[in-house]
Protein: DUF779 domain-containing protein
Organism: Paracoccus pacificus
Amino acid sequence: MGTVTATPAALQLISEIVADHGPVLFHQSGGCCDGSSPMCYPQNDFRISERDVKLGEIGGAPFYISASQYETWKHTDLIIDVVAGRGGMFSLDNGREKRFLTRSEICRI
């Protein structure tokens, strides 16, 4: 089954965000507005659905994906990276001139 990992650049950005906002969580976006960016939220400000699947943790932060997306991506390893740009409108990486990006690598089944 798929996993989630983070690059050193992503781990550094997570550390910066946690220092500013406290504990965070990630939810893999599948929406139209933010494409497929991983969204970073304060842990207390995002309600996890019973249909969300926890893939693992990155930088101590839980990482979730919707059950429907999980069915599509369950044989893929997600790699969370950082690139230049603006984060999703409600994601804590917004306004930092760098944002999280999901890369993928197909797992062997």
Remarks:
- The helical segments are 8-21, 67-73.
- The mean pLDDT is 88.
- Residues 8-21 form the longest helix (14 residues).
